[in-house]
Amino acid sequence: PELYAIFQGEVATVTEYGAFIKIPGCRKQGLVHKTHMSSCRVDKPSEIVDVGDKVWVKLIGKEMKDDKLKLSLSMKVVNQGTGKDLDPNNVSLDQDERKKRTFRDYTSQKITLEAVLNTVCKKCGCKGHFAKECFVQPGGTKYSLIPEEDEEDVAAAGYERDKKTSLADDSSKKRKK
């Protein structure tokens, strides 16, 4: 059979990983893997098909392995009632193939984020940003990054100041009554 051809076949055997389908007009059988049986997750192929069932399938792959032709079939891209192709341009098959591929970084190099922090702006001369991100006007105030230790001290001082003002507000409210 031709690649991406649709035909109705008979289920020959059902395994835990899929079902083998007899292809009409030849002695070959093709495998419908359980991932290609339905658009939903299939745990047990025996819940979907039984031996002797007639199913519509699409030939999605041919592979020569050990001088044997292995055929891959799909039921989920064919309407099981009419035999109509639900994926005429094979878009969902391509998407399934892309999902299987994983990105692997073979360089084994760690990414460091210090590159931006250690840069010096050419516009204002401050550290921590690029000239295109600089918001300083010529002759204006210059800004630079504050070290992290100082931020904790400033935050603690701000908290103490807020505490004092809230106590003062409470005492002035009491006097007004």
Helix-strand blueprint:
Layout lengths: L5 E9 L3 E5 L6 E5 L20 E12 L2 E7 L16 H10 L13 H4 L30 H29 L1
Parallel strand pairs: 3-5
Antiparallel strand pairs: 1-2, 1-4, 2-3, 4-5
Structural class: alpha+beta
- CATH class division of the domain at 5-88: Mainly Beta
End-to-end distance, in Å? 94 Å
Please compute the radius of gyration using only Cα atoms.
34 Å
As a percent range, the share of strand residues is: 15-25%
- CATH architecture descriptor text of the domain at 5-88: Beta Barrel
- The number of helical segments is 3
Oligomeric status: single chain
- Biggest sheet layout: 5 strands, mixed, barrel
Helix content: 10-25%
Question: What do you see in this structure?
Answer:
Interacts with PNN. Associates with the 60S ribosomal subunit. The chain is α+β, with helices and mostly antiparallel strands and 177 residues long. The protein has 3 helices and 5 strands. The longest helix has 29 residues. It is rod-shaped, with a radius of gyration of 34 Å. The model has no long low-confidence stretch (mean pLDDT 78).
